[in-house]
Amino acid sequence: MSGISLLCSLIGVSLALVIGTSTAADAHSGVGLRIPGVAEHLELALMVEAGLTPMQAITNATANAAALLKLDDRGVLASGKFADLVVLEGDPSVDISNSRKIHAVWHRGKQAAGPVETFTP
Description:
3-stranded antiparallel sheet
């Protein structure tokens, strides 16, 4: 069974789907190699291709992943949570490929990366 076929069969089953685990991206690549910062975008796209909405895929990558790891201090934007977020140039809930259009990255409330002209570490 291919990775995408397996993922399609899991949608709708009471099973936690999160990115960064043995999901379709690992099987789809054929090599089992995960490149951080690249594999996550591939997994988001594969989840959408398998039938999830972009928001369901994003929730699997954020809130569901944090919940699975029992990290109740992150995973959603809310008061009292770590301010880890990615500012995008496009809306990923409309087109999941917009998750690759990164404008800035914030980690624990501080800008960690962004446009060269405005970013100072």
